[in-house]
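Agenda item 2: magnesium ion complex prediction
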Amino acid sequence: MDIIVEKLIKEYDKNRVLDINKLKIEKGSLCGIIGANGAGKSTFLNIVAGLEKQTSGRVFYGNSSNEEIPLDIMTMVFQRPYMLSTTVEKNISYPLKLRGWNAYSIENRVAQLCKELGLTHLMKRKSWKLSGGEVQKVALARALSFKPKLLLLDEPTANIDPKTTGEIELILKKINIDEGITVIIITHNLVQAKRLCHDVVFMNQGQIIEFGRTAEVLKNPKYELTKQFISGELII
Ligand SMILES: Nc1ncnc2c1ncn2[C@@H]1O[C@H](COP(=O)(O)OP(=O)(O)OP(=O)(O)O)[C@@H](O)[C@H]1O
Ligand SMILES: [Mg+2]
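Presented output:
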């Protein structure tokens, strides 16, 4: 699903934290969002997800006349996901129950996801007895359970060890390719952006400074601000 943004502005008490003139993230893309703390990354993603309301401007989903947030095919994973206080299995099956899947299909889908994410041995475990990385994987399994078309991720691997991060990246790549899911991921890890994302958006003080192929932006940035950010010299 294409995401098209036009003249998107968010202000808190007249303080402008987001100001995006135009952006189009194409269907099937795996797009990274990078930028310093406070750059407006989460604000942008929250608006796309409908969790926050913009001050003005528009976000279109799929085509340039549809502003309705596609709640049934979209999902978001946070850096610190909330867990339902029950088992791993029930956390993952919850979106399927809500959507009226039958017991047999739910069981198969949950088993398949747990296998892919290495969670099979944890299926009966209560969610409060999981480690941070395990919670993150369960949150991802739950997000993927109903086969969304748009996946929004806000620093999903920020607290996760390199091995688990690698596993999560593989899964994201796989679902992006196999199922054509559009993935937008905020990351502070430039190496991750390079490994994972076709395209990258660099944000600074609420604005998009640069948007393009990740390899190109990270290797030959066009703008001084991007260069400074990549080399760790950006002072805000
Ligand atoms: N509810 C709020 N009220 C006032 N200002 C806010 C609010 N939420 C966010 N902001 C401000 O908006 C700006 C952008 O915040 P945002 O959370 O989008 O940044 P970010 O790029 O996600 O940063 P980080 O990398 O630290 O997560 C920041 O200056 C922040 O202080
Ligand atoms: Mg953020």
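Discussion summary: The beta strands are 3-12, 15-25, 30-34, 56-61, 74-77, 150-154, 182-186, 199-204, 207-213.
Owner for follow-up: CH.
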